[in-house]
Amino acid sequence: MIKRITAALLLMSLLISSYFIPGEPAAAAEEDIRIDSSVRASSQNIRMVHGINAESILDIEAIPKGEAPKTERPPIDVVFVFDKSGSMNDIVQGKSKLEHAKEAMAAALKIFNENNKPRTVKDRFAFVAFDSGVNPDNSQFTLNSDTSGIASKVSAIKAEGGTNYTNSLEKARMILESGKGSDARNQYILFMTDGKPTNSEKTEQTNKRYLELIEENEYISKYGYYWSGLGKYWSGNVTTFKDKTYMIGDSNNRTVQISGAKKMHFDTNPGRNYIIVEHNGKYYIERSTASAVQEEINKHITDQAKVIKEKNIILNSIGFGESSQVDMKLLEDISSQAKNATDGGIVEIYQELSKKWSSPTPILSDVQIQFNLPDGAVLRNAADAVLLKNGKYKISLPDVLYNPLPAFQDPKMKDPRKYTAQLPIVFTKPGEYTINMEVVYTKDNAEFKKPIAPVTVKVEEVKLEKAVFKPIEVKVGETVVLNDKIEYFPADATYREIRQMQKGPSNAFELTFENGQFKAKGINPGFNTIQATVVSGSEQITANGTIQVVSSGNDQLKW
User: Fold this and answer.
1) Which phi and psi angles does 443 have, rounded to 5°?
2) At residue 338, what are phi and psi to the nearest 5 degrees?
3) What does UniProt give as the signal peptide span (predicted)?
4) What is the pLDDT of residue 388?
């Protein structure tokens, strides 16, 4: 009886467990969303023959796997960071950059709105406009699923001022961090700029002397315009700050030692190159070089980007301008992905990112094949591969969209279910080369890395077995190159460096070495021996031969 009761209790516990362990099938389906990759070498054993580098082609294959889950994707928060500096008035393809950027924003909002309509938990959006600083009048600092407020702000924007990456990115981060329920959302910043950074504000520690800034009207009321005010203008001791004109104090009676944590303003706009410190309700200035101030500004930006990354916020940047106008290297350094729009193609970039981030089904983005090349292995054609800062190479693949089955998003692909590429590798020396690869992609704001089974290529040296001189005949007064007179066995031996040559005791010819070539010049009719030392890898081979010197009048000696 007791055994029956025990068995019944066990059965009931199993049934209860099956009902109260939710989500396992869904979790398994989510794990199935991945990219499987493989690589194989067209030739894994190669003979390296003399004068020709060995080569093998790596055939790479990437196949997305899995199926889109039926559940709604996690909601997203997006902050648009929008450059409204004066250079946005520049004309590109018949209209201002500002007009292009406004069209791009409208196209992005349209896509976000369409994908947001059927959602149960809505996506949210905010907008940060910036010039020399963050511009509150043209911004929407609260996250909202209704984008009409952003659209109104965008349409009213006018281009003016400098370019402040630091504080606009900081504001975008703070908006995302303060959003209700932000932990359950994937978060993005879309940063657009058409220029290099010129301004930054940051509270920093200082301990040095600064010149006092005196507001123009206050200065003139104290010291007069004609005698002292004009002198300031003539000497260049005048600057503008926050839309006001200031006179810069004299170094002998208007300097102040300032120490501690102070709010500091950095500016590299034309004619400025200064650092202004706020201290006890007044402004003080340190003049500097453009490169020194720019270095500080760039450091502020990279520091802010590090914090954004630590918060698991995806930052994508768009540089809207030519390379002389936009620092694309800086944008690439601070961003998960940076794109350059030079010809008005900014609308397409905004649309692409909007579709990717708001897609109702999963997208695998920023898909890459990354790999190292061992010493002695080089790419024959690096057009498809880019060298990264960490020494690895990357090949960029199209995004993968699940709907519900996966497909690479490239209309040029014959089969969107499978990506293939060929990578020609040249080997410059014998050895065993193991090439490690991994597929890298982003899913739901997280980066995934999956190792690919390594491929090994063996490049074998063709050993030199022997070397002999061919029969050599030279006329008196004539010179022959001896390097070409040695015969090698086998002929395609990998290494055959002629290290030295020496002749026998006869004076039939003169042996010289010039420009990497050994030469024999006929002196007297007769015979003499010649010997060469040939180095092949770690081996040394001796080649022997005889040179016959004949008179120029065809009075030849016989062998």
Assistant:
1) -140, 125
2) -130, 135
3) 1-22
4) 85
In this structure, are strands 377-379 and 539-550 parallel, antiparallel, or unpaired?
A: unpaired
**Which CATH number applies to 34-70+369-461?**
2.60.40.740
Tokens 């800034």 sit on residue: 213
In Å, how far from its chain's centre is CA 320?
A: 17
CA distance 293 to 264: 12
CA 280 to chain centre: 44
Residue 297 contacts residue 200 (beta carbons within 8 Å): yes
Using a 10 angstrom Cβ sphere, with 0-12 exposed, 13-18 middle and 19 or more buried, the burial of residue 440 is middle
Mean pLDDT, residues 355-373: 92
Q: What is the pLDDT of residues 502-511, one digit of tens each?
A: 999 999 999 9
Query: Sign of dihedral through CA atoms 378, 383, 389, 394?
Result: negative
Query: Residue 558's pLDDT is what?
Result: 44
Would you state the structure tokens that stand for residue 455, as one six-digit string? 């491929």
Strand order in the sheet with 313-320: 140-144, 124-130, 76-83, 186-193, 313-320, 337-341
When computed from its CA atoms, the radius of gyration of the chain, rounded to whole angstroms, is 37
Where residue 221 falls among pLDDT bands split at 50, 70, 90? confident
For the chain, what is the mean pLDDT? 89
Q: In what order do the strands lie in the sheet with 419-427?
A: 34-41, 54-65, 419-427, 377-379
Across residues 288-307, what is the average pLDDT?
94
Instruction: pLDDT band for 300, please (50, 70, 90 cuts).
Output: very high
What is the C-alpha separation between 553 and 214, in angstroms, rounded?
A: 101
The pLDDT of residue 547: 97
Mean pLDDT of 88-95: 93
Reduce the DSSP state of residue 491 to 3 states and report it.
coil
Amino acid at 522: G
**What CATH number is given for 466-550 in this structure?**
2.60.40.1080
The superfamily CATH assigns to domain 76-195+296-358 is von Willebrand factor, type A domain (3.40.50.410)
Residue 192 reports pLDDT greater than 50:
yes
pTM confidence score: 0.71
- Whole-number Å distance between alpha carbons of 284 and 290: 18
431-443 and 363-371 as β-strands: parallel, antiparallel, unpaired? antiparallel
pLDDT for 225: 73
Where in the chain are all domains bearing CATH 3.40.50.410?
A: 76-195+296-358
10 Å Cβ neighbour count for 439?
A: 24
